[in-house]
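Repro:
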Amino acid sequence: MTRLATIVAFALLQIYATVSAGAPYSFSDYPSQDGRCVGDQSVGEIDRSEKACLAQVGDLAQRVGHGLQLKFRNGKTRIYLDEEAKCQSNDADGCIEYQLTGYFPEHDLMLIEVDYWEGASWLLVRADTGDDTAIVAPPHYSPDRHWLVSVASSVGPAGPPNGMDVVPSIRTPSLKEWHYRTPDDAQWLYEFAGWEGNSRVKLLASSLSAPERKVSSSIERRNGEWRLIEPR
């Protein structure tokens, strides 16, 4: 991991120590193993190996100076440029680094981890066109591999964005993305707990108000639309 990624990992782990006692470098008891690159032996969300991913994707991605360069199959190129100087300054305002941390060869999708001085987020990038989608965590495939779901929650500023994303693995007009960002006054933290079929994502919801409660919740697809089923 880069110096910034190591700091981010430590901050995230401090926050999630009270939420989960799961795998190292993980803020969930169910860190996704989907899209982990060949040769990557890590298991958490924030210790994925860029070296393994660069080796696997070949000409699709390479390190160019302080940037991650992607060359898409339509011939276009994009560079995600690290703000190295800002990351080394005292206030670190505007600090950002990009790492290629996943590849889904079946659907030609790349996963980029975006590290800030406080927190992290991810981009799911389609290698054919370069279209990208912001997601809150490394995603999990549905059993039929038609969908990818991300779920993350945090307390304080150092975690990933609070929310959920369901993204189709193949872009088609009949399958719509769904994104939910948790309101600031929300009463629940949500954690991915597995798929139940291809139209229901199981969640574990932890209350933020006393007395603390842990209950089951879900994201469900009804009439072609995804929606959050909140705890009662």
